[in-house]
Structure formats: structure tokens, C-alpha cells
Amino acid sequence: MRQEIAVDKIVESLKEDPAVRSIFLKGSMGRNEHDSHSDVDLYCLIHEQDKENFLSRRSTHLKAYRDIIFYDDIFIIAPQVIAVYDDYLHVDLFTVTEETFQNKDYFTVLYDPENLMEQYITDGKLTLSDTEFKDYVMDIAWFLFQYKKASERGNHLWATEMLRYTMSSFSNVVLYGYEKDRSRLGLKAVINHLPLDKVESIKDIYESMNPSSHEKAVMKIAALLNEEMEWIISHNAVDHQTQSFLKRMVGHFENICRGELTNG
């Protein structure tokens, strides 16, 4: 795949840079879960004192693959270059030090003559912490509450968006129940890490998640949440208030659904 070709060429260039101590992949390539459409998340570990000089040379290294049609220099978790090539491959090049490296995903080492990366090899990197799990559960309840207000107000665009927020949080929570060590990845990991029936249920919800039929979507969300409710609220991080709020919001929409079925 072109990803491997790009990585090989860029890494060969980076190896010649005296500032580079280690080179590794994170993201889907780092987990060996990539496909022909995946981005490349490439990391260089350097000494702090070499950083400024190295940053000025990043574009030269990236051009070792082929012509770049879009280039941006940003900082989110570390100095990062976004490069899009003329074959539409997207490469992110991150620059980290031992002090700034965040050990929150699995990685594949490509170059590490000092064996620096061995200290970061651990399990469970993509498992939600207790606090993260509770926050996502609370977000599900909160965005259902916001959906209720938007729907009753007749703001169908915003109501639909609140359901999207709900499902984004739900994806992290439900992954925790079925493939815990992918639960930090959220919605993009659902298709490969949930049982087929759950994936189909989520796809069906998204089919209804639009301004003209969001009322159907929320009923399906409530039903899906009810299927998973027992193990979600039994997690020791989910306090009584969060349990009660979630059950109340799910129950509200289930009651509406039962009323519609009775009236129908």
C-alpha cells in the first residue's frame, strides 16, 4: 500500500537527521489495523534542545515521498505537521520529547537505536478510565435531555445534532462493554469491534437521524440503551445521580414509544 511506501521513504530521510532519536507509528498503522484509506501518524522523538532546528527540517523529510499539495504546521498535543500529497495520502508528523510523549495509544517502532521506546510498552492504553467512562455515560443522559428540549421547541436541526452527540458518547461506552481496549476510539471503531447485531442497530439509528425523522431515531436509541443499561449502570464509577438521570431520560422516550404504540 502507498502508506508503507510513504513511511519507508520518509523514515529513510529521518534516520539521517542527527536530532532524531526514535521513529514510530501510532494510530491505525501503529496498531496494525490500517487499510488503503488510512492516514499515517508518524512520530519522531528528539532531545528538547534539538527541537527548534528539527522543526525547520520537517518539510524536507516529508517531501522524500512525493509532492505535497497541502501543508500546515499546528500544535495540539505536540508540534505537528499535516501533509497531504498529490496522491491524496495524508501524513501527520508529530515531534515529541521524552517529557512530552503521551502514552495513550499502541505504537510500532520503526527506528530506535537507543531502545527508548521499551519503557512505554504497556497494555490497556485504549481502555477508558473510570472517570472517562462515567463522563461518557453522563454525556449520553445530558444530550438526550438537550434533545428533548430542542425537539419540543421544534428545532429539528439542533435536535438531530443532539442525537449525534448522544451516539458519539454511546459508542465509547458500548465499546467498553464489548471490546474494552478499544473504547477510547469511539464511533470509528464500532464497525470492527462490536457484534454485527449492534453495528446494524447503530447503522439503523443513523439512517433515521435527520430533521424529518429524528423522533424515530431517539426511540431506537432508547431501546438500544435499555438493552445495555444493566451493565452500564452497574459500573462502579457511575454514581447514583448519573444512574438515575440516564434511566429517567431513557424511560421518558420509552414511555412515549409505548404511548404511540397504544394509540396506534
UniProtKB/TrEMBL annotation:
InterPro entries: NT_sf (IPR043519), Polbeta (IPR041633). Gene3D superfamilies: Beta Polymerase, domain 2 (3.30.460.10). Transmembrane segments: none annotated. It comes from the Bacteria. SUPFAM superfamilies: Nucleotidyltransferase. Residues 9-54 form the Polymerase beta nucleotidyltransferase domain. This is Aminoglycoside 6-adenylyltransferase. It comes from Halobacillus yeomjeoni. The lineage of its organism: Bacteria, Bacillati, Bacillota, Bacilli, Bacillales.
